[in-house]
What does this fold into?
Amino acid sequence: MVGEFQHRTVVITGGESGLGRAAALQFAKLGARVFVGDVAQKEDNNIPFGGFEIARRICDVRSEGDIESLIGDAVAATGRLDVMVNNAGVAKIGPITEATEADWDFVMGINLKGVFFGCKHAIRQFQQTGGGVIVNTASNAGLLPRAHDPLYSISKLAVVGLTRSLALCHSRDRVRVNAVCPGPVGDTGMMDETLSGEADPEAAYRKYVNASPLAAAWGRMISPEEVAEAIVYLASDAAAMVTGTCIAIDGGKSLGVPPQAG
It folds into this structure.
């Protein structure tokens, strides 16, 4: 794929850390003009992003105006939009009986409404230029609901549904819409926050790894770079006839109950 994305424009939300950061760097290495939006900019990205001339914008995906401006800035600077990666997301652990209205609005606002805004304005642009690609970050929780985080699972199930629906609606516009469904992924702000909230972070880490049979076999979590590779594939010409697909990158976690050790 070296050079395949030369002269193509890629917009990524939640691009300052984790999966979004890994995807931004991977697209940039392949020649793309990359525009990253996030609620805050991380100083650690100044050098690697600067080296690839990755453009950075403050963007709260709950604000339609912020999303519209992020995409508009990319189009104004390059004259085009080729790939939209709706990646921004937050986690929420706990039973539905303890969730507040504010919790619901926060999780759905970022995980679902933000994807809706990104898809809406990317598709509007693609309709003017003859097509494009959207990749949404869902989760294995969007394939198989989890008991410990119903709000998060609901939001990601909705992202999977949105992805498939829009893929069906907009194939006629030559717009492809797919999703990645990762987990458990290490070295992300979401996972770091989750582990830091545990009484025994090391035990919690092992619990997450052991819940995924392939991750358990390797003794590690999935890396952001591994998910980024799937995002790049879905955006590439190799996936020209792939739409409405939700790829599980979860070490088999969403397959079912793993076999017991021994």
Observations:
- The mean pLDDT is 95.
- Strands lie at 9-13, 33-38, 55-58, 83-86, 132-137, 175-182, 246-249.
- The first helix runs from residue 18 to 29.
- The chain has nine helices and seven strands.
